[in-house]
């Protein structure tokens, strides 16, 4: 009897230590963009297949030819189909039961066309499966993401460069004061533009010329006066270097009550 209990104990320990997680990452886009979503699997056990459903909010459509397996695949096949009006199903398998390589990283990517929408949309993985060679679902959990569609008008000065100069607002959310930090690659003129959550421009401030280094400054007082507690806004920092075109970076901010 004791050997049987020992075997059961070992199996339970192995199961508790096994972590096989499916992850969809946050993504950012503008109305009219094509946005690429990526799926990671972090695994402690070998797997040969995976599947998930993703509910697409109205205004998003799937580009079928965009489906791509990563270099973790080994002669695997990937298929994506709409299974209903708004449900995208993607699955991948191996004809010869080969395991995906590695223990973490991207397994598949695909693209969506973004319509004339704006706001934040949940990216929620449903009916997830990570299959082992015995066709057992070894999925332990999922990490969902958010698709943020920035309002129209945030790119009025030029190319939008995601994370190009590390724009941060601290603290965020904030009450009375917030600091804006950014790093420049060249001497540049900097303008901060405030938009409401519907993409309407509220105000803008030319904050000056800055050199090639990291800078931190207070959010301008005239801008703070425009921020209503409990509302969401977008801070757009527009940078014009001595040579070259304008570039922009956007961060979402929220002011809260005292």
Q: What does this entry look like structurally?
A:
With 258 residues, the chain is mainly beta. It folds into 2 domains: 133 residues, Sandwich (Immunoglobulin-like); 97 residues, Sandwich (Immunoglobulin-like), CATH 2.60.40.10. It contains 2 helices and 20 strands. The strands form 5 sheets. The protein has a 5-stranded mixed beta sheet, with no helix packed on it. Strands 13-20-19-16-17 form a 5-stranded mixed beta sheet, with no helix packed on it. A 4-stranded antiparallel beta sheet has the order 6-7-4-10, with no helix packed on it. It is elongated and about 70 Å long. About 5% of the residues have low confidence.
Properties at a glance:
258 residues; mainly beta; Immunoglobulin-like; 2 domains; five-stranded mixed beta sheet
Helix content: under 10%
Order of helices and strands: HEEEEEEEEEEEEEEEEEEHEE
Identify the CATH class of the largest domain: Mainly Beta
- For this structure, the CATH topology of the largest domain is Immunoglobulin-like
Class by alpha and beta content: mainly beta
At CATH level 2, the architecture of the largest domain is Sandwich
Per DSSP, the total helix count is: 2
Count up the domains. Answer: 2
Count all strands and give the number: 20
User: What is the average of the pLDDT values?
Assistant: 83
The dominant shape is elongated
The termini sit apart by: 63 Å
The unreliable regions are: 152-163
